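pasting for ref
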Amino acid sequence: MIWALRGSIIRKNINSVAVDTGSIIYEVFFSLKEIENLKEGQEILAYIRESTKEGEPVELIGFLSEENRYLYDMLVSINGIGMKNALKIMNFVDLETLSASVESKDVKFLSSLPGVGRKTAERMILELSGKIKEVGRSDLKLGEAVETLITLGFSRNEAFFAVKKAVDSGAKELEDIVKIALSIVSKV
């Protein structure tokens, strides 16, 4: 399973990009909302989910943040929402909006999303209610903090160690976690 790809965009299509990772070039599909910000020649880190259907090649779905990958996971966990529909929905909602709509049982808003009728909206409320929590969001902050340190040249082990120490010291916001983790890693 591919967790993420780091590479350079060599071609941009309507709903996908070709990412050159150095030795292999992958086609990665994105939501239109995310792909509009991508440019050929740009270096990216794409968080990945794989979509497999019997008799068809594996498709890679990319996200520019772990939060968006988590949102995708929540959407495709609903019976009747597949890869393509989840990406369409992601053009209109973020994780916070989806969570608020589900918790407030806003069938009208949810059923206004592309490919979501009244029954699917009701199923979303039933299946996701109470599942989209701040816990998921704090885990995403930790992942982003680790990736930030790795981007700055630290090893994955150093980054995990420093981020864990930063959180243990009471840091809660991403910026604070990274600042404290940087000071920890710099001392080592």
